UniProtKB/TrEMBL annotation:
Lineage: Bacteria, Pseudomonadati, Pseudomonadota, Betaproteobacteria, Burkholderiales
A Pfam family hit: LysR_substrate
Keyword Transcription: yes
Organism, as annotated: Duganella callida
InterPro entries noted in UniProt: LysR-type_TF_proteobact-type (IPR058163), LysR_HTH_N (IPR000847), LysR_subst-bd (IPR005119), WH-like_DNA-bd_sf (IPR036388), WH_DNA-bd_sf (IPR036390)
Protein's recorded name: LysR family transcriptional regulator
SUPFAM superfamilies found in the cross-reference section: Periplasmic binding protein-like II, Winged helix' DNA-binding domain
C-alpha cells in the first residue's frame, strides 16, 4: 500500500462524504478509492467510515486520523516543492471560523491576493458571532474576540481594538451626547448579548486622578449578532458600546460618532485559535499570517 496515496484518498472521502466524488477529484476509479480505504482500515486496525443507505459517517478514529493526515500531506507537499525550488503554494481544504463582521470587513476584501498565491487551496469560512466550537465544526483555525474560556485550545493574540460608545449624529442631536459614563443610563442602549457584550461597563478616565466609573446600561434592544447591532446603530435606534472595527468605514465618513472619547473601556483582543494540542498546519499558519498582515494595514494590528 502506498500510504500517502491512501491518505489522500481518505482525506477526499472524509471531506466529500462520498467515494464517487473523491474518485472524481483524484481522477481514479471508485473501486480504487474503496480499495485504498479498505487497506488503510486494515493497516490502522480501525474502521474509518460507517456505511449505510444514507451515506458515509466518519468514525471517531477517522476524525482523529483526518487531523493528522491533512497535516502530513501538507508537510509532504511543501517538502517536495522546497526540493524542487517551487513557490510554496498550498493546496487542499482549509476550514476557518470567525465572527461575521470582522471577517466580512477586514479579511474577505483582502483575500484575492492570498487565493491567487495559493490557487489549489479551498477555504470554508464558518462565520458566527457565537464563537462556534472548532472541533464540532471541524475548523483548523478560528479568529475569536475577547476573553477566551478556559479550555484546551491553543491561542495566540494577533490584534487588539478599542471599545467605543457610538451612535449616529442624528441620534445625538435628538437625545444629547453623553458627557459622563453615568449619562448612559438616560439613553436607549443597543446591547450585544453574546461574548464581550453585556450591560455592566467599567470606564477609566484619561485623567488618572479620576476614579473608574462602573455603570449599568438600560437596554432598548438586545441583539445576538454584531451585524444586528451595527444595523440598529446606523438606523438611529440608540447608542451602543461596540468594537471599533465594526464601524471603521462609518467612523471615517462621519456616519457615526464617538462619545466619551476621554474615557476608556478594556480593549478587545483578537486571537488566532487552534484546537487543543494541535500544531498549526502549513495552511493554517499561512492564513494566520495573512490575517496578521490584514490587521497591520489597520490600527488594530499589534505594534
Amino acid at each position: 500500500m502506498d500510504l500517502l496515496s491512501a491518505m489522500r484518498a481518505f482525506v477526499r472521502v472524509y471531506e466529500s462524504g462520498s467515494f464517487s466524488i473523491a474518485a472524481k477529484h483524484l481522477a481514479i476509479g471508485q473501486p480504487a478509492v474503496s480499495k485504498s480505504i479498505a487497506q488503510l482500515e486494515d493497516h490502522l486496525g480501525n474502521k474509518l467510515f460507517l456505511r449505510s443507505t444514507r451515506g458515509l459517517t466518519p468514525t471517531d478514529a477517522a476524525q482523529t486520523f483526518f487531523e493528522h493526515a491533512t497535516r502530513t500531506l501538507d508537510e509532504a507537499e511543501l517538502a517536495l516543492r522546497s526540493v524542487r525550488g517551487e513557490p510554496a503554494s498550498l493546496s487542499g481544504r482549509l476550514r476557518v471560523g470567525g465572527t461575521i463582521t470582522f471577517i466580512r470587513q477586514h479579511v474577505i476584501p483582502n483575500m484575492a491576493a492570498f487565493l491567487e498565491q495559493h490557487p489549489g487551496l479551498e477555504i470554508d469560512l464558518l462565520l458566527d458571532d457565537g464563537n462556534i466550537g472548532l472541533v464540532e465544526e471541524g475548523a483548523e483555525v478560528a479568529f475569536r474576540m475577547g476573553r477566551l474560556p478556559s479550555s484546551g485550545l491553543t491561542a495566540r493574540r494577533i490584534g487588539q481594538c478599542r471599545r467605543i460608545v457610538v451612535a449616529t449624529p442624528a441620534y445625538f442631536a435628538r437625545c444629547s451626547t453623553p458627557g459622563r459614563p453615568q449619562d448612559l443610563a438616560d439613553h436607549a442602549a443597543i446591547v450585544f448579548s453574546r461574548g464581550e457584550g453585556g450591560e455592566q461597563l467599567t470606564f477609566a478616565s484619561g485623567d488618572k486622578s479620576v476614579a473608574t466609573q462602573t455603570i449599568v446600561l438600560k437596554p432598548k434592544l438586545r441583539i445576538s449578532a454584531l451585524e444586528g447591532v451595527r444595523a440598529a446603530v446606523l438606523a438611529g435606534l440608540g447608542i451602543a458600546v461596540a468594537s471599533e472595527w465594526i464601524f471603521t468605514d462609518e467612523l471615517a465618513s462621519g456616519q457615526v460618532c464617538v462619545a466619551l472619547a476621554d474615557w476608556e473601556l478594556p480593549r478587545l483582543d483578537l486571537w488566532a485559535v487552534l484546537p487543543g494540542g494541535r500544531h498549526a498546519s502549513p495552511k493554517a499558519r499561512a492564513f494566520i499570517t495573512f490575517v496578521e498582515h490584514c490587521l497591520s494595514l489597520t490600527p488594530y494590528g499589534l505594534r
